[in-house]
Amino acid sequence: MSAATAPARTAGPAGPTEGRVTLPRVVHSEWIKFRTLRSSWLTLLAAAVLTVALGTLFCWATVSHWDRLPAGERAHFTPVEHSLRGYLPAQLAVGVLGVLVISGEYSTGMIRASLSAVPRRLPVLWAKAAVFGAVTWVVTTASAVTAFLVGQSVLSAKHVDTTFSAPGVTRAVLGAGLYLTVVGLLAVGLGSLIRSTAGGIATVFGLLLVVPGLAEALPSNWHDAIAPYLPSNAGQALTVVQQGPGDLAPWTGFAVLCGYAAAALAGAAVALKRRDA
Amino acid sequence: MIEAVGLTKRYGPKTAVADLSFSVRPGVVTGFLGPNGAGKSTTMRMLLGLDAPTAGHATVNGRRYAEHRAPLHEVGAMLEARAVHTGRSAFNHLLALAATHGIPRRRVEEVIEAVGLREVARRRAGGFSLGMGQRLGIASALLGDPATLILDEPVNGLDPEGILWIRNLLKSLAAEGRTVLVSSHLMSEMALTAEHLIVIGRGRLIADTSVAEFTRRASSGGAVRVRTPDSVRLGELLRTLPGVTVTPDDDVQVLLVEGADSEQVGRLAAEHALVLFELVPRQASLEEAFMEITRDAVEYEAVTAAPALIEEPTV
Questions:
Q1: A277/B50 touch (CB, cutoff 8 Å), yes or no
Q2: Nearest to A185 by CA among A106, A264, A267
C-alpha cells in the first residue's frame, strides 16, 4: 500500500506507430468501455425482449381473434409488419443507449480522461459511433429476424404467415434492424451535442414520438408535405410492405433518416472539436 | 518541461486566468499553489488542451498537448479524481485508457499494484472512497510511463499514510528526471513536497521561485517576540529606531517587535541593562507567508479591477 517507488520505466516507444494513438486502438478502447458497463447490455436486452416478445404477442392475439376479424381487416393484414411491431417500443431503449454512451462520460467526468488520451478528439466520437452502431445492428437485426420467425410460426396456425421470399419481406425484416441502428446513431449525435443524459433522452423521445404527433395538428396539406420527412416516419418506410399514400419509398425514407443521423453526428463533431471539455 | 506563455482564459466577463507565463523544469517537484478559485484547475486543463485558452498558449515537452501523437507517454495527468465512469471497475477504466495507446494489460496490472489498488480493482469505481479515487487517478497518470506529470490536488482526501506515500512518490518521480507539477491550496503540504513554487492568485502569477526563497522573502524584515519585566522602557527605546514598530501583547510583559531582528533587540537591552526573559525570532510560517502574499494580490485586484470576479468554473 505504501510502496513509495515509482513503477519502473518500461521500454520506450520502439517504432513509428508503437505506442501511438491510432483509430483501431481508439475503437478497441471504446469497445472495452462499451462492454464493461452494465447499462449497455441492459438496454440492448430490453430492445431485444421488446422486439421479440411484443411481436409474438401481437401475432398470437391476431391468431386467436382471426375468425372474428372483419373481412376488411383480414385483407389488409400484413404478417411481416405484424410480427415486427415490437421494434417501435424497442427504438426507445436503443435511443436511451445511444444517448448514454456519450452523456455518461460527461456526467461522470470520464470525458476528460478520454480526451486527454485522444486529444484530437474526433476519433473518440467516430469510434463510439462505430462500436455502438455495430453492436446495436447485430443485436437488433438478430431480434428482428427472431421476432419474424417466431411470429410467422404463430401465424401459421391460421395459415396467414409469410416467408423471406415474399416481396418486400426480407427488406422489411432487415430494415427494422437498420432503422433501430440509425435511430441509435442519431441519439449518439444528439447526446454528444446536448451532453446531458436527461436532456438527450428527452430530445430523442421528443423527436421520435412527440414531433410526429404535433405534425398531425397541422393543416392537412402542410402535414402531407412535412410528415413523411420526419425522422421516424421516413425511416419506418423501410419496414413496411404496404406503402401508404404519401409515404416515401423505402430506401428514400431510410436515406432521409440517415441524413438526420449524419447531421446530428456532424454537429456533434464540430461541437466536440470547439467546446471546452 | 512545461511552458505557459501569456495563458489567459475568460468566461464571458470573468477572467479566470490572466496572462500567465511560467515554465516547469524537469528533475524537481514544482508546486502550483493558490487559494481555491485562483485558476489552478483552469490552467491545468489548458495545459492538457481540454480548455482552449482565450489568449496565449502552453506546450508540454516542446509541443502543444494536442499535437502529441502518444500523449499518455508524454504527459500523465490527474485532473480530478472523479474523471472516471462510476459504473466501470478501476481495472476496466485503466484498460480502456491503455487501449488507446496499445499499452499492454501487464502495464495496467503494474500500475494498479503500484498505487495499492489490487484488492479493489475489480469493483465499480463509483463505490470508491475519495482516497481510492485519488489512487486510481494517479494510476491513470502513471499508465504511459510519462516524462511529465500534472496532478491537481493529489493529496485531497488521503489519509496520513496516503499523503506520505504521494509525497515520496512525487519526489522519486522527480528524482528520475521527470517534470512534476502538483497543485495544492495547502502551503504546508507544498513546503514538504516541492522544491519550486509557482504561486497564483486571482488568475495572476504572484511568485515563481524556490520554496526556500519564498519563505525567506516572506519572513524578511524580522519579527521578534520579547518578554521582559521592563517592557515599557524597552518599548520606548525600540520605537526610537527607524522602521521599527512595537505592538504590546495581552501579557504586559510581552512586546511584539517588527522591523528589528533578535540580535538588535538583545544588544539594545544589554546596552541599557534591561533583563530579558524571552527573545524569540518569529519566522513567518509558510502558510502565513502564503496568506500574506495572496491577500496582497487579492487587494490589488479588488482596487484595480473590481468587476473582474474570478471563480473556479464548476464543470
A1: yes
A2: A264
Instruction: Tell whether B73 lies on the interface with A, counting CB pairs under 8 A.
Output: yes
**Spatial separation of the C-alpha atoms in residues B143 and B153, rounded to whole Å:** 19
Chain A nearest-CA residue for B106: A10
| Residues of A whose CB is below 8 A from B87 | 37-39, 104, 108
Residues of A in contact with B65 (CB under 8 A): 119
Closest chain B CA to residue A31: B96
Residues within 8 A of B (CB atoms), A 88-127 only: 104-105, 108-120
Domain spans of chain A?
23-274
Residues A271, A106 contacting (CB under 8 angstroms): no
Chain A stretch 29-68, residues whose beta carbon is closer than 8 A to a beta carbon of chain B: 29-30, 32-33, 36-39
- Domains, in order of start, for chain B: 2-217 (3.40.50.300), 222-281 (3.30.70.100)
Q: Which three cell numbers stand for residue B63?
A: 509541443
| Cβ B221 vs Cβ B57: under 8 Å | no
Query: In chain B, where do the E strands start and end?
Result: 2-11, 14-24, 29-33, 55-60, 75-78, 148-152, 179-184, 196-201, 204-210, 223-227, 245-248, 254-258, 278-281
Predicted confidence (pLDDT) per residue in B223-264, tens digit: 788 999 999 999 999 998 888 888 888 888 999 888 888 888
- Prediction ipTM score: 0.90
| Neighbour-count burial of B123, counting CB atoms closer than 10 A to its CB (0-12 exposed, 13-18 middle, 19+ buried) | middle
Query: Do the beta carbons of residue B121 and residue B112 sit within 8 Å?
Result: yes
Instruction: Look up residue A179 and give its three cell numbers.
Output: 432503422
Find, in chain B, the residue whose alpha carbon is nearest to that of A272: B50
The residue among A162, A166, A145 whose CA lies nearest residue A153 is A162
Query: In Å, how far are A4, A6, A134, B67 from B158, measured between CA atoms?
Result: 15, 18, 42, 34
- Element (H or E) spanning A182, and its range? helix A169-194
Question: Poorest-confidence range of A21-25, B15-19, B72-76, B290-294?
Answer: B290-294
Q: Are B32 and B211 in contact (CB under 8 A)?
A: no
pLDDT at A216 over 80: yes
Which of A108, A89, A87 minimizes the C-alpha distance to A39? A108
